[in-house]
Amino acid sequence: MTALPRPHRDDVLIAVAGFLGGLLLWSLGLDTRRGQGFDPRWLSLLPLAVMCGAELLRRTMPNTALAIGCAAMLADQFTDGNVATIALFTDLVYAAVLYGTPAAARRIPAVSMVATAAVTVTALVVFQDAQAVLLGLLFAVVTVAPAWTGVSVRTHRDAAEAARLRAEQTALLAEIDRTQAVTAERARMARELHDMVANHLSAIAIHSTAALSLDDPKTSREALGVIRENSVDGLAEMRRLIGLLRESGGETSTSAVPRLAGVDALLEQARTNGASSGLEFTLTDNRGENLPLPAPVELAAYRIIQESLTNALKHASPGGITVALGRDGQMLTVGVTSPYGDADGPGPRAPGSGAGLVGMRERVALLAGTFDSGPVTAADGARMWQVRAELPLDEGNGTA
Length: 400
Prior knowledge:
The protein is of the alpha+beta class and 400 residues long. It has helices at 9-27, 45-55, 62-76, 83-99, 102-127, 132-142, 144-213, 217-248, 263-274, 295-315, 355-366; strands at residues 279-286, 319-328, 331-339, 370-377, 383-392. It has a five-stranded mixed sheet with strand order 1-2-3-5-4, covered by helices on one side. A hairpin with a 2-residue loop joins strand 2 (319-328) and strand 3. Helix 1 (9-27) packs antiparallel against helix 4 (83-99) and helix 7 runs antiparallel to helix 8 (217-248). The radius of gyration is 43 Å and the shape is rod-shaped.
């Protein structure tokens, strides 16, 4: 058997206060219809007690409480009556609208108005006196007034709850946006750090391996020179990035964005780093007119070339490495082709993590471009590794 829900503390207080108030009125002889009800006089306390019991259910079972209240109100008509019983009934009508189901909240006010009209018309027909309208007015005070008061309070309560839910949803969306922004910024910073430092560290790793493995003072001296140069350059770029983060909260200024005009210097550095591995580097620029490019596109193209050259230094077999720039309508094409490296081939190698390809793909995706990388077969049958990206040149691009 299911136990009844525990009544709310305020409902218990209302029930106790209502019963004590009704008992006080009864003891003072303040009945609503003194001498018109059944004897003995204390019978008027029974509907009062039932009404107080229904008050205990006004929040947890409001429809049941109202049904019990209606029965108690009907029984009260056969006794001398008590004002407290009527007052408690109006509270049950109010509570049924406020705490009941939405359907009950719609039906109860309508039913109360229909019942008021019916009682008024019946009183006029029975008593044939205009004063019977007062009975209808009294019935409206007991039923219609509390019902519509409940409707008003419920409407305001629902509006406040809806506003609270909207505020919570807005706060949740703001937190999601903040988290996504932080994640995107961290990913962007990770790409910048990887692209800026990986090239220098790869050269350091390759030449330090060469210096350790070759017992040749001249070769070791040249390798140490390259190591020092890349160490200084890498440290300078790290300091530059840290300065940008401190000054502008991570927003890269336009003047600090690498440009494609610096690709020549990038290739010269790659030639120096890859000379000992038998690598040769060539730039083919077929862009035509030297029109200005959107900064995000230029940064992405530069970083793709930089990372591709770094990967070539790590993995490519001896041979020629070609960097190709072109323009196809509103698309900037970037391609880097290198000999497909053999993991067991000659020359020192630096380990890779795979983050470079992921970073390049992310940069292109942010610009709504296309990216492809993998082994291809050249016209002479040689196996090559090709990186190719197409970047839209429209101004709607975001920051890469």
